[in-house]
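Appendix B. Worked example

We walk through a single record from start to finish. Start with the input: the chain for Secretion system C-terminal sorting domain-containing protein, Aequorivita sublithincola, length 432.
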Amino acid sequence: MKKITFFAKSVFMAAILLGSLNVAAQVELKVLTQMSTRFNDVNDSGFGVTVGQYYNFTTGTLTSPEPEAVMLASTNNDENVAGFMFYDEPNFILQAGYRMNGVWMPIGFTPNQDPTNYDENFTYGISPNSRYITGQSNIGNDYGGFLFDTQTEELIISLDPQGEASASYAVNDSGIMVGWVDRPDSGGTLRVPAYRTLDGEYHLIPEGQLPTISGVNAISDINSADVMVGDFDLKPFMYNRATNTFTSFDVPTGADSAAFTSISENGVAVGFADVDFQVRDAIIYHPSLGDQPLFLKDVLADNGVTVNTPDGLLGTAISVSPNGKYIAGWVNGSPPFAEGWMVYLDDLILGTNTVSQNTVSYFPNPVESILHLNSKEAIDSVSVYTITGQLVSNIAFNENKTELNFSSLATGVYLVKVTSNGSVENLKVVKQ
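Next comes the structure step. The output line below is what the pipeline stores for this chain.
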């Protein structure tokens, strides 16, 4: 596979021209210069958390957390945060904690855990609705995931019923924890992507197929539609629980392996590819970009943004915001000391509006002559562009339904920009 297809480049060129007509459209990369600022998470407003600070993308500023917080792990759109607090500060014993409405509260331990004997609850994720917090726990040498309910304040340590180690990296509003479990193999243990539902059941994916490579393989994230992403046998995957569909993707050309780390509510997946020994480069996937993951730096380059990191790479993309507009990660180097970065991608460029946000319907597609447009709001204007960005028609309207005559246009792909009630929607139409 080429690093980025001609078609994808053409789509981005056209999208840039379309975006130039909309002052809100932009793509921006901010690379932090301070050491130890690698990001762990970001939300829809560009509020991010590094290991030890809050970040505001708009102002480009880092601020210290409340004094009760020791480390930060994840956040959501309410800016509630999961992280760590001190349990015993003189002996530097940490406990899981969370910030709710600006106030930090401890999670503590279960009665059968002994924090003075190295039992711990290591925080990874908070659900979008702030009800659940998850991570990895241990009771002695038994390792599993934990689930904390912020409403009932119940803490559950979930151990694999087959007695193997497990971990949980993320949790959604339904309390589904995702991560991995170990399974014995001839060489010792084999890590397998797995999720746990609230009934306590573990489910391995893909069903009936174990990976062949040890040491990797995990579900890294899950969205509210129960779509999960991760890595399986050194390749990124996406699993839709509703349809029981497991999709494995190719490793980008020039890389040895790849993994997805995060998925948005509208299907933008991000992660990393291993391009050399201990050297990564961030990747991104969405159907509007093509059928395989691309290097994020190539997407940025096609939109006029230069990656100004020491090695010209973006390293690890660890999180994408729920709306798919912000991506956060860190550059290559020792993770404890790595500098963080954050990207803003306008939704007009990615075309990531969810179905519920769409106000314009159109048919038929492909079209031979007449394209019918129906809008919830009165259509103000319609512009038609070639895939290379050339304007071929621009018509003003003031009605909810209209027709466009494509009969005189050459066969190919066109971008139709529909403006209604101050909003802009871009449609991709194929002319036969």
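Two observations about the output. The longest helix spans residues 6-20. The longest strand covers residues 370-386.
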